[in-house]
């Protein structure tokens, strides 16, 4: 089914380029949300540096991004010391 649709595309290069641009924009938006919006909210609530908190959660964040699953990060250990709370 999908192969038939891909074969039916007249200009595959433009379609792939458009999808690549879409992926780039989505990933950029997620990074802006994580390092901008959420960091600002964390600072407003706790008055602590949000980037030290994010640094402590780096292993869990990378696992979630790499596996595309938040459930896969459950066994990833992080301690209170690494979060600098």
Automatic annotation (TrEMBL):
<protein>
    <recommendedName>
        <fullName>Amino acid transporter</fullName>
    </recommendedName>
</protein>
<dbReference type="InterPro" id="IPR036458">
    <property type="entry name" value="Na:dicarbo_symporter_sf"/>
</dbReference>
<dbReference type="InterPro" id="IPR001991">
    <property type="entry name" value="Na-dicarboxylate_symporter"/>
</dbReference>
<dbReference type="GO" id="GO:0005313">
    <property type="term" value="F:L-glutamate transmembrane transporter activity"/>
</dbReference>
<keyword id="KW-1133">Transmembrane helix</keyword>
<keyword id="KW-0813">Transport</keyword>
<dbReference type="InterPro" id="IPR050746">
    <property type="entry name" value="DAACS"/>
</dbReference>
<feature type="transmembrane region" description="Helical">
    <location>
        <begin position="57"/>
        <end position="80"/>
    </location>
</feature>
<feature type="transmembrane region" description="Helical">
    <location>
        <begin position="20"/>
        <end position="45"/>
    </location>
</feature>
<dbReference type="GO" id="GO:0005886">
    <property type="term" value="C:plasma membrane"/>
</dbReference>
<comment type="similarity">
    <text>Belongs to the dicarboxylate/amino acid:cation symporter (DAACS) (TC 2.A.23) family.</text>
</comment>
<dbReference type="GO" id="GO:0015175">
    <property type="term" value="F:neutral L-amino acid transmembrane transporter activity"/>
</dbReference>
<keyword id="KW-0812">Transmembrane</keyword>
<dbReference type="GO" id="GO:0015501">
    <property type="term" value="F:glutamate:sodium symporter activity"/>
</dbReference>
<keyword id="KW-0472">Membrane</keyword>
<keyword id="KW-0769">Symport</keyword>
<dbReference type="Pfam" id="PF00375">
    <property type="entry name" value="SDF"/>
</dbReference>
């Amino acid at each position: 089914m999908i192969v038939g649709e891909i074969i039916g595309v007249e200009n595959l290069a433009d379609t792939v380029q458009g999808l690549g641009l879409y992926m780039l924009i989505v990933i950029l938006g997620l990074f802006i949300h994580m390092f901008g919006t959420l960091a600002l909210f964390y600072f407003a609530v706790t008055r602590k540096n949000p980037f030290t908190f994010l640094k402590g959660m780096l292993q869990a964040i990378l696992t979630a991004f790499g596996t595309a699953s938040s459930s896969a990060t459950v066994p990833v250990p992080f301690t209170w010391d690494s979060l600098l709370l």
